[in-house]
């Protein structure tokens, strides 16, 4: 892989805690740089969004831009589909559990750091 293709692991292997949301980091999207670096609670780039548990294999592959079944972030059959994943791992779903606003874009109205969600980091939900 090229350095530009590097992505963070979205789930802590020990605790099962999500390390960042599937929502794109505004700073990263605008400048390609984030002052929070690897501690940022939002996705840096398309691959971090696509391979996040909230998105990974939740839609069928269109086969036009497929990277191959072993590395494609889309499902190649109904058995691979993870239709339950957005409800369990997405920012919008979790924000709803806490009664927090989520804008029309899904992640536009993010809760402030220091609110009832503490650092703004995703909660420990366990993982599959």
TrEMBL record:
Residue ranges occupied by any C3H1-type domain in the UniProt entry: 24-47
Zinc fingers, C3H1-type class: 24-47
GO molecular function ontology, one term from the record: zinc ion binding
Keyword field: Metal-binding, Zinc, Zinc-finger
Keyword Metal-binding: yes
Keyword Phosphoprotein included in the entry's annotation: no
Stored InterPro entries: Unkempt-like, Znf_CCCH, Znf_CCCH_sf
Protein name (Swiss-Prot/TrEMBL): C3H1-type domain-containing protein
Organism in which the protein naturally occurs: Strombidinopsis acuminata
